[in-house]
Amino acid sequence: MTHSRLTRRGALALAAVGLAGCASSQERDDDAPGDGTDANEDATGDADDRDTPDRDIEPDWDEAAAFRTWLLDTDGNRRFDYTATFPEDADPADGFPDFFGLETDDLEGHLMQSGTHVFFGSFDPDSIVDGVDAAEEYDLSGEYEGFYVVTRSPSDGEELEIAVGQDAIVVGVDYERRIDAHRGVGDRLEEVDPEFTHLFRELPHDTTVTGQYGSPTGANVDVDEIILWGVSSETPMAETVTWVFVFEREADLTDDALAQLEGVSSDVEDSSVDGRTATVVGAPPNIPDGSSE
């Protein structure tokens, strides 16, 4: 029996974090778990630094998946991992303190980017704040644009800032920028680089999605000409996933390059090229039983 890295490195790691894993993940920055292909942390892909045709495309925010409004043009490779479906053996609510009163059924999705976590769902901020006074290590430190800001100050660790709203809980030092982007008063990732809007339009799912600048590593793919790539599936446990790779120049997307991209899948069902974009559909990569990844 084998497990896909999409399952092992992506959904399980993301879904199980709760607050327990958020503090340490802020130190990891863009080295988030994902999709079966490790993050290339050195890739930046800045739009101003590359020689590509302008992408005449704009996001339709009325139709876009809600998590996209929370993505920022952060430093590094802009790596993000999102899932709206949690595996049966994952309990992301378990990492929250009891006074939050959360159960896994309350959570409708989870996003991680640059060490910041955004949990989506329907929450009762007033009830959560009522429990802060009696909770050790937690204090109500303020409010920001309709969110209560709770600070956890453990005696043996780093402070953790938690912005609690009705539809989202944001855990991370950049919560103000995230909230501003979501509200439409701060720059969103797609507004800075429309290549990400193109990526989302090419990916067929918006329920389990990973994306970043650069070439994926660790999955038999090493193509320097890739600007950014993403992978999506219906659920984290899906047997079929879709990868999309966007190249800087159409001339670089050769038959040899496509053949190398197909190495990302353990069983390719289909692959195609459209201009500067390549798509590979197939089974996730496999790793042996007992692997920690």
Automatic annotation (TrEMBL):
State the PROSITE patterns in the record: PROKAR_LIPOPROTEIN (PS51257)
Bias class Acidic residues marks the residues at 28-49
Name of this protein: Uncharacterized protein
Region (Disordered) residue ranges read: 22-58, 265-293
Q: Which organism is it from?
A: Natrarchaeobius chitinivorans
